[in-house]
Specification:
This protein is α+β, with helices and mostly antiparallel strands and about 110 residues long. It has a single domain, classed as 2-Layer Sandwich (HIT family, subunit A), CATH 3.30.428.10. About 20% of the residues lie in helices and about 20% in strands. A five-stranded antiparallel β-sheet has the order 1-2-3-5-4, with helices on one face. The model has no long low-confidence stretch (mean pLDDT about 95). The structure holds adenosine monophosphate (AMP) and zinc ion (ZN). Adenosine monophosphate binds next to loops.
C-alpha cells in the first residue's frame, strides 16, 4: 500500500527507531503515547485490519504477540496490555493491522 503510514515506517522511510525488527515485524513507540510505555507492534506486510485477515496470516498474528512479549521482557515490564482496535467503530485509526502494547512501567 503506497500511501500507508505504517508501510512507510516499517520500510524505514522515516528513520524511525525500532525497539525490535525482524524480517516480518517492527516495534516502535506510538507518537501520541497513552501510557508511560506505548509501543506499536506492526507487521511489515500490509493487512488493513483484523477484519481482513486471512487464514495464512494466523502465524504472523501470533508472532506479533511474541514480539511484544520479547520487547516487554527487554524493557523489564512485569505487566502490560496488548490491544487491537478493529474497524472504525472499534477505534481503529490506522488501517494497517497492529497491536498496541501499553504499560505504566518502563
Ligand atoms: P489505532 O489505529 O487506533 O489502533 O491507533 C493508531 C495509533 O497509531 C495511534 O495511537 C497513533 O497515535 C499512532 N500513530 C499514528 N501515526 C503515527 C506515527 N507516524 N508514528 C507513531 N505512531 C503513530
Ligand atoms: Zn500498510
Amino acid at each position: 500500500m503506497s500511501d500507508c503510514i505504517f508501510c512507510k515506517i516499517s520500510q524505514g522511510q522515516f528513520g524511525t527507531s525500532f525497539l525490535y525488527e525482524d524480517e516480518e515485524i517492527v516495534v516502535f513507540r506510538d507518537i501520541n503515547p497513552k501510557a508511560k510505555t506505548h509501543l506499536l507492534i506492526v507487521p511489515k506486510k500490509h493487512i488493513d485490519s483484523v477484519m481482513t485477515l486471512e487464514e495464512s496470516d494466523e502465524l504472523l498474528m501470533g508472532k506479533l504477540v511474541m514480539a511484544g512479549k520479547k520487547v516487554a521482557a527487554d524493557l523489564k515490564l512485569d505487566g502490560y496490555k496488548l490491544q487491537i482496535h478493529v474497524g472504525e467503530s472499534g477505534g481503529q485509526e490506522v488501517f494497517h493491522v497492529h497491536v498496541h502494547l501499553l504499560s505504566n512501567q518502563g
